[in-house]
Amino acid sequence: MELAHVQTPALILDLDVFDENARIMENYVAGTKMALRPHYKSHKCTAIAHRQIAAGANGICCAKLSEAEDLANAGIEDILIANQITDPAKIVRLATLAASCLLTVAVDNAKNIADLETAAAFQHATIHCLVEYEIGMNRCGVQTPEEVYALVQEIEKRPHLIFEGIQAYAGNLAHEADEMIRKQESDKVEQRLRELLDFLVNKGVLVKEVSGVSTGTIGFRPHDTVYTEVQPGSYLFMDAAYNQLHLPFKNALFVLSKVISANNRQVVCDAGMKTVSVDQGSPALKGYPQAVLSMSEEHITVSAAECPAEVGNLLFVIPSHCCTTVNLHDHLILYRGNKVMDKVPVTSRGKSL
Length: 353
Ligand SMILES: Cc1ncc(COP(=O)(O)O)c(C=O)c1O
Fold this sequence. Notes:
The chain is of the alpha/beta class. The protein contains nine helices and 17 strands.
């Protein structure tokens, strides 16, 4: 089928660009001690997770327990939930899941560690733990090496928990537009982590993994980086927000839309806020970089001077945020050139529990 025959609005993925983005990321980690553990949040498709594993990814990182369950159901064996799971009912689910795959979870609280042990013991399961270190994002995590060490000790005395290492994600730097600041601040993160590792080594702690890093900061890792695995997500698709950083990755993900009304004043197409997210600002139009988009639920309106188009023409909308846009769609259509190659479900669409 030709792309022109796809009913719109539709989430579409240019496989040639997608493959090239994946190759660029593989080159970043090749020859370093960093393994790739891509973040599932960007695509939420188990079919894509399998492609990433087949291409050499160590495992998959995700944000939600329900995403981890989908990944395990699809046969992904090594899963990191880079978040705290504290709800008692969810801890039961987590321990059940840990009995069927290699499951790692972030922790930053002693009571949570005790609760994980109780559930894991009940399921005869092992839960692997990363202690989350707060390195500037001001989200979860403890702030001092002493606090990290205290939690490591809590984990190490639990027979059903294994201390794997440190979760350290500097999400505050991911979209920093000033390249110099992004680099300087990334170096400071490396330095703080190095100090943490020295502190832990002096206490006799074996730290196997240091996990973190985004699409926006992967290029700044020094050759002797402390990170042993990286968790980028957006690099595969890219979006209008990340375009501002002029990274080597290119736009592979679009919402394909058709012009449904046009006159010499304005052009209206059939994508809107229900199919393209706006949490990171306005989307863009491929081929019309100057066009200012006015968004409503089911429509995008643009001036005819900025985007001369006729009823029936296809417009390729570049989402401002790929991850939240994907979560608005049931399917992702894969294409090369003008040809539709496949259609895969967005397996974990709406999975927030
Ligand atoms: C913990 C964690 N790791 C990795 C990422 C991936 O970031 P990006 O999509 O910017 O590469 C995110 C994004 O929110 C995240 O929260």
